[in-house]
UniProtKB/TrEMBL annotation:
<dbReference type="InterPro" id="IPR013785">
    <property type="entry name" value="Aldolase_TIM"/>
</dbReference>
<dbReference type="Pfam" id="PF01791">
    <property type="entry name" value="DeoC"/>
</dbReference>
<comment type="similarity">
    <text>Belongs to the DeoC/FbaB aldolase family. DeoC type 2 subfamily.</text>
</comment>
<dbReference type="GO" id="GO:0009264">
    <property type="term" value="P:deoxyribonucleotide catabolic process"/>
</dbReference>
<comment type="pathway">
    <text>Carbohydrate degradation; 2-deoxy-D-ribose 1-phosphate degradation; D-glyceraldehyde 3-phosphate and acetaldehyde from 2-deoxy-alpha-D-ribose 1-phosphate: step 2/2.</text>
</comment>
<keyword id="KW-0704">Schiff base</keyword>
<dbReference type="GO" id="GO:0004139">
    <property type="term" value="F:deoxyribose-phosphate aldolase activity"/>
</dbReference>
<dbReference type="InterPro" id="IPR011343">
    <property type="entry name" value="DeoC"/>
</dbReference>
<dbReference type="InterPro" id="IPR002915">
    <property type="entry name" value="DeoC/FbaB/LacD_aldolase"/>
</dbReference>
<keyword id="KW-0456">Lyase</keyword>
<dbReference type="GO" id="GO:0016052">
    <property type="term" value="P:carbohydrate catabolic process"/>
</dbReference>
<protein>
    <recommendedName>
        <fullName>deoxyribose-phosphate aldolase</fullName>
        <ecNumber>4.1.2.4</ecNumber>
    </recommendedName>
</protein>
<dbReference type="GO" id="GO:0005737">
    <property type="term" value="C:cytoplasm"/>
</dbReference>
Amino acid sequence: MSIRRNLGIDFDVCRLMFEGVAINLPAMKNIIPNQLGRRGKNNLAQIDLLLRVVTCIDLTSLCGDDSECNVQRLCHKAENPIEPYLLKQLGVNPEKFHVGAVCVYPARVKDCVKTLKGLKSFVPVASVAAGFPSAQSHLDTKLYEIKCCVKDGAKEIDIVISRNLVLDGEWEELYNEVKAMKEACGSEISMKTIIAAGELGSLENIYKASIVCMAAGSDFIKTSTGKESVNATLVIGRTMARAIKAYYDKTGFEVGFKPAGGIRTAKEALLWQTMIRKELGCRWFYPHLFRIGASGLLSDIEQNIFLKFYGYVPPKCIFAYQ
């Protein structure tokens, strides 16, 4: 599926897109339930949606005790996210079914690249960078970290913005910083920009930050680091999706969306994919434009697929990497 890569736009054009924006929070909260409605799909249809969700997962491990052994397990699960016998029963080729990416800290990128190469896997390695999760580092340090990740073999970089630039209204400085990080990634690397929406103070700031980060060349915008007190909520997601739609209508560039933090169940994942399809269309429900950052979600999805297909879950079956 072809995609028109985001080349970014000038800051002056970007500013015109968000000046005077106002978002009605109570109205936004009321719209969400009406928008999602009842899915009313049969089990096989829901299984198909859940399988699509799996291909959009960035299987993540961002723990202080991550080791080579831990990320090896992560990579094996990324390459084989659902039990092969179950996939065959569903008519899916296990050899061509995997998650969207594995996502780790910079120090673990080489381990993942080595493991996935040994598996002859096409799963890309994503790395958080740029002072994740706080972004409280000098810009030169952020740029160096990004370049190290790319050198080590990361194909996707999840940067995080400096929240103070949003809270202080320093929009042009935010634009310049994100643009510099995109240049550090290079043209072949997909850059996901984490806006840490739960720390931005208002939906207006979330919308503005989304527009600025896209204008600076981000390939994806991402809700959260997963470390904030408020992470991915549907209201935040809808606000960001509206920004993506406005940017697409203005420029013709398709920018991806990645919710992350607190999405742990198949039911929650289906709500997110429904919201994205309604806001942005079915085209966005593919790995090149939609990802979910998660660590424990895969296990629940696998159990739900098994339950919907067989009518039960084996009581002692150990499913996904935790």
